[in-house]
Specification:
The structure is a homodimer of 590-residue chains.
Chain A: E1 8-9, H1 12-35, H2 58-75, H3 79-95, H4 104-108, H5 122-140, H6 144-162, H7 176-187, H8 190-202, H9 236-253, H10 256-272, H11 304-320, H12 324-340, E2 356-357, H13 382-391, E3 398-401, E4 404-407, E5 413-414, E6 418-422, E7 429-435, E8 441-445, E9 453-454, E10 460-462, E11 465-469, E12 474-481, E13 485-490, E14 500-505, E15 508-513, H14 514-517, E16 524-526, E17 533-535, E18 538-546, E19 553-554, E20 560-569, E21 581-582, E22 584-587
Helix pairs in contact in A: 1-2, 1-13, 2-5, 2-13, 5-6, 5-7, 7-8, 7-9, 8-9, 9-10, 9-11, 11-12
């Protein structure tokens, strides 16, 4: 893998996103975390204010924000940002228990309950702190935070692996497993890899772990040993973080059992349990996977963090074996569900990302996803997760295996041997220049959605990658991925989508909003053979609207009038006030 | 109105239903009420068994069953049934408070809380007991129960109208208002009519009534004075019972304000808030009306009692003014939602009547209506309501205004001047014979669904009734209502139903079940111009099934295969085990 560390994003789509992230989102999340007492919770010397008692999730919120800050600081000095991170580190260092334990909730609110409740997110918070510490060390070279977290990891190793004195064996919310792999990679200490393996191996294979949230062990992926899990079950975010760690260990340890499980899980997710937006989790009930083809649009949970988790899992799978399906799925998640999680301005967030919104049905009093992005949530995992994800996006771009340089994703960026210039995903033309790799090979991902591509170079297409022999040490080529607007259809078993189509262009899924199309989107349909005009920001095609007919029920076939239909990228929905929204639109003749 | 008392149902559809009701349903409900302690609760001399503490609704359950028994006993002696009713009456008589109060819950469980909680259904239970007492007196001439209830009514008059000593002014659950009109009609005592008027006039017009269930006064129709209510709001059953009483008082008192409100409410319900099955209440949340055109299929509440209430309201409106829309709506409710409430065998019941069922989505853990009829419910209002409704159905058939005999509904029946023989709704041919009415007029309802009818007699069609001068004292004619199978479409604002049609024939709405059509009903569609074959029990037409396509998402237009589609009457759904069900089916070319 070629790390974000060694890559500069030079322009285009992701440069804009990262600039917004740095200028708006990271400060906005910090302000909200200051205001809600999250930063103050690290300072044990003051009492908390009314209503600002530390929450069991809070350390992880702070940690993800710190991790984002680290990624930004690696690229560009920002003394104020650095100071904010250093202050948090100082408080953690100061308040960390002598034995290594650190948790602002359990140290301050319920000290007697440490390691008692499997669902209390202690190891989850610890994992996020470890990820942040590694990122900060790699960004700045300063190791104070890293040493705190090594000490914490050693304490966790003692409690869980050696003494086994906790009330549970594996975390109710996975995350530390992948963090420990990062700690291993950063320090070279094999004990952290072994601790990660311990948690993975114990999962679903010990008599000590109580079910969390529901009576069903599958909620926390504890229903079976990891190597026997072949269908994605339970809480979608927990599942994704687990699968990330499984893929990491498959790579680090050559663990075939874990690799097989990861492959099966990937297939189950992407062929049966994933929204077209890359969203995961079909129900708010448990924020969970349900069953094959159960992908309701209006009540989709589809948490931003789960789509981030899917992208992270796919990135690891791409590193394990060259198969474009992994990057295809990552791309689907990133350009749709993940980016929908943050507002156009960058300061408001969705936790749930439904595929259809009818604001007025909330008047029923039943539970539906919210329809406007919020500045912060009580459980505010998604906003800081977005900040760190966007800041470290370059991690997705390249891997190198021996003499093969893989390009998994396209954006304007450069690293040691390659430079890319493109407006992707706005258009499919990609200029590449490869230096100092004569005799090696370039492997360009041809996305699954792309039916025609051109690059003027002979090559071999294998599992979605186009392999080209690099002829000399300064080699330029242009890859053009044809990116027409297409109607996409779901399998008939996705029962809400029969008779409907989604408008897609390249990796981007589009949606209609009533602000562009008038109220009652379900009355609209795409005309047979409709041609699309417009560009990335707005697509138009011919369609019809069923007219209101006066009588509630009647025998006369409904009358239709012609109407131009307008579509915007799904990830931009709900940026112009409350509006109906629909991804899946009735398609005539289907 | 010509009472069921003076009508004999002689054969055909309703004779079969009433026979099943008498032979199966009434005994089955009694057995369940015995088993659950409902009858025993009337006996204050014994302690209740574990888990059988009287419930605040129970008196009303028993009362509705007693009312059904009375209707049956009016037609046919049944000593065992009579004894069961008499035993209950004896217990009520014995345990009634000296002051007239009777409530098996508040006398036994919380005696200090009488008349304190507006939502505790005391006046609702009292109303049902009064209805039962009137029915039993009219059936048997025995007045013991009636006297108990007159005493109770007098006590209620004292507490609510004279002393105003209760913690509330009007009941949280309406019902007593219509019962008091029955008591007035039975006894001729105007004070009961005045007491009913008092409750209606005070509703939404006093400072004493607290909101019930939710903070919203509209839940119990207390948001406005009755005469200012023009849209159906809140709990659907409560609303219907209120509107029944408003219509009763409009008739008895010539109250134009109430009549206007009733007309507006009827229009709002039938043109904007009613399922095609006559079901009412779009959400389980409050078991309530929501807003115009909000009629979701899978999560419909559509309580059996609300459809019964709609039929009862419409019957009263038919008596107020000759307009077939009232009987049309009653018929829609009766032949669809009401009859769906009871199983084919007659011993199991639905409380909620959704228009679409996907049994597997219950696996999400979210709330959906149950998919199999139950023998009894914790709150078991619907089963005994069905027993009394079916037993007294003849009340719907005829009214007489001066020299005009109105026939509102068609079934084989006879009364003083008319005899009808028909297999309606199985077929549209109706033989009528009118005796002793030469010079008078016969007004035959031509249902709104009927586009062609024939009767071989000149006449005048006015607001859905065909008026014929009766030529002599023994006059026979055959009315034929053409009853082809029709596709019915919903207004485009019913957003779940665009692109779909419902199969209807006469008043009967049909549905598909997966047991007849294979799994995944949403993959099926009705072919354009499809012709239907078969009869009342089973209709068939040509259609298509979208094939499963392997990939979850793809660009290829879905492939379809031809499939014969099979439809059964909606009211017979869920009688052959758990099955998918759908009323609204995708219609090609719509």
């Amino acid at each position: 893998m070629i790390s974000y560390h060694d890559i500069v994003v030079t322009g285009g789509f992701w440069h804009e996103l990262q600039a917004r992230n740095q200028a708006v989102t990271v400060p906005a999340v910090r302000r909200r975390f200051l205001k809600t007492g999250r930063f103050a919770a690290l300072d044990f010397s003051t009492l908390w204010e009314e209503g600002k008692k530390p929450h069991i999730f809070w350390d992880s919120d702070i940690a993800k924000w710190m991790e984002a800050a680290a990624y930004i600081l690696q690229k560009e000095r920002d003394p104020a940002l650095e100071r904010a991170v250093e202050e948090a580190i100082s408080l953690i260092e100061k308040n960390q228990d002598r034995n290594g334990y650190f948790n602002s909730y359990f140290m301050r609110v319920e000290p007697e309950k440490r390691w008692q409740n499997r669902d209390a997110h202690e190891l989850y918070c610890a994992g996020h702190l470890m990820e942040a510490a590694v990122a900060y060390y790699e960004a700045t070279g300063r190791d104070r935070f890293l040493h705190c977290m090594i000490k914490y990891a050693a304490y966790i190793e003692k409690v869980f692996m050696i003494e086994r004195s906790a009330a549970f064996q594996t975390p109710g919310h996975e995350e530390i497993e992948l963090a420990l792999v990062k700690l291993y990679r950063c320090t070279g200490e094999a004990r952290w890899l072994r601790l990660s393996q311990f948690f993975i191996n114990q999962r679903g294979a010990n008599g000590k772990d109580a079910p969390v949230y529901s009576a069903n062990q599958s909620y926390s992926q504890s229903h079976l040993p990891a190597r026997e899990q072949f269908t994605a079950e339970g809480h979608a975010v927990r599942a994704m973080y687990l699968y990330c760690a499984m893929a990491d260990l498959a790579l680090e340890c050559g663990d075939e059992g874990l690799l097989n499980a990861c492959r099966a899980l990937f297939v189950n997710i992407t062929e049966k349990r994933m929204y077209i937006t890359g969203g995961l989790g079909s129900s708010h009930h448990g924020e969970a996977f349900t069953f094959d083809y159960d992908l309701p649009n209006e009540t989709a949970y589809s948490e931003t963090c789960a789509a981030i988790g899917l992208a992270l899992f796919c990135r690891r799978m791409s590193a394990l074996e060259p198969d474009s399906r992994y990057a295809d799925a990552a791309e689907r998640a990133i350009y749709n569900c993940v980016l929908a999680g943050v507002s156009e301005k960058g300061d408001a967030f969705f936790y749930e990302n439904p595929l259809e919104i009818h604001p007025e049905i909330r008047g029923r009093g039943e539970r539906f996803p919210i329809t406007r992005r919020q500045k912060v949530f009580g459980c505010s995992c998604c906003p800081p997760n977005l900040t760190r994800f966007i800041a470290s996006y370059a991690d997705f771009l390249f891997t190198r295996h021996d003499d093969i340089l893989y390009v998994h994703h396209y954006t304007s960026a450069r690293t040691e041997h390659i430079e890319i210039i493109t407006e992707y995903p706005r258009e499919g033309e990609i200029s590449l220049r490869v230096r100092g790799m004569a005799g090696g090979r370039l492997a360009l991902r041809i996305p699954g959605w792309c039916e025609n591509f051109h690059c003027g170079m002979p090559g071999t297409l294998d599992r979605g990658y186009y392999y080209i022999d690099i002829p000399d040490d300064d080699f330029a080529l242009t890859l053009t991925l044809d990116m027409p607007v297409r109607l996409t259809y779901a399998d008939a078993r996705v029962y809400g989508n029969t008779g409907r189509a989604a408008v897609t262009r390249g990796p981007v899924v589009y949606c209609m909003e009533s602000i562009d199309n008038g109220d009652n989107l379900r009355a609209l349909s795409i005309a047979p053979g409709a041609q699309f005009t417009g560009g990335f920001d707005l697509l138009e095609c011919n369609g019809h609207r069923v007219e209101e007919q006066g009588a509630l029920y009647r025998f006369d076939s409904p009358k239709r009038v012609s109407q131009k239909l307008r579509f915007i990228p799904y990830f931009r929905y709900a940026n112009r006030g409350e509006s109906e929204m629909a991804v899946w639109v009735r398609a005539e003749g289907v």
